[in-house]
Specification:
With 240 residues, the chain is an alpha+beta fold. It has two domains: 75 residues, Ribosomal Protein S8, Chain: A, domain 1 (2-Layer Sandwich), CATH 3.30.1370.120; 154 residues, no CATH class. It contains four helices and twelve strands. The strands form three sheets. Strands 6, 7, 8, 9 and 10 form a five-stranded antiparallel beta sheet that branches. A hairpin with a 6-residue loop joins strand 8 and strand 9. The longest helix is centred in the N-terminal third of the chain and has 15 residues.
Length: 240
């Protein structure tokens, strides 16, 4: 009887250690993206093979580990958060310590007063306003003409581009992060000798965080050979 019980116990242990195979269907990500996680969970005892075309991961190994890995994959396999549409409004302000200010739109009076207090400016006017719309995580770019006085038959141009915009919740409002924002104004002038045009530029390059509904002064760039500077102001709005 003891021998029989011992034999049955050995058989049950061997049966419990019998490896199993599982195929886990993946819906919301590329199966091979899970390889780093599976490498940790498998502890070197489970073999797996992802198939990106058929969207599955095949597992083979001890039952306990295979079932744990299957459960982990199902927790990971959820829809990604919906990307938001973002609207960015850029105001280009021309400012100087001399002269008088022209009329400033009501929504920019606070910014204008801040610039006067900090930089001792007297003359501030809006050169141009640009609106950019795009999806979160994507590159955005816009360009156009800007009303700067020049002595040649050509119009200054601006260009605004950014690598991506990301959002995150905060206590007061959604926080919008703008990565690798680049702003440039190209100003035409005659080449030395009067033959052809050359271009000077005023530029700003930075990262910036702005809360939805807030106006932020991104930066300042001086115009060559003048006492004037261009300030870039940005505000952000999440559309959905």
């Amino acid at each position: 009887m003891k021998r029989l019980l011992l034999t049955l116990l050995c058989v049950s242990v061997l049966f419990a250690q019998e490896p199993i195979s599982r195929v886990v269907q993946i819906k919301h990500f590329q199966p091979d993206f899970a390889s780093p996680v599976l490498d940790i969970l498998s502890a070197g005892k489970v073999r797996w093979r992802p198939d990106n075309n058929l969207k599955y991961i095949a597992l083979h190994g001890p039952a306990e580990l295979v079932e744990a890995m299957e459960a982990a994959l199902k927790k990971l396999d959820v829809p990604a958060p919906a990307e938001k549409n973002i609207e960015l409004t850029f105001h280009m302000l021309l400012a100087s310590a001399q002269g008088e200010s022209s009329a400033i739109p009501p929504d920019l009076t606070g910014v204008a007063q801040q610039l006067r207090n900090v930089f001792g400016l007297k003359s501030i006017r809006v050169l141009e306003t640009a609106v950019m719309r795009g999806r979160e995580g994507q590159q955005m770019e816009t360009s156009g003409l800007v009303a700067l006085p020049v002595k040649v038959d050509a119009t200054p141009q601006y260009n605004i581009r950014l690598q991506k915009v990301l959002t995150s919740p905060s206590e007061k409002a959604v926080l919008v992060r703008i990565d690798k924002l680049e702003f440039r104004v190209s100003i035409p002038s005659l080449k030395i000798g009067g033959q052809g045009l050359t271009y000077d530029s005023a530029s700003i390059s930075t990262n910036v965080d702005v809360r939805e509904g807030q106006k932020v002064v991104v930066g300042k760039s001086g115009l060559d050979a003048t006492s004037q500077s261009v300030f870039l102001v940005v505000s952000a709005k999440v559309l959905d």
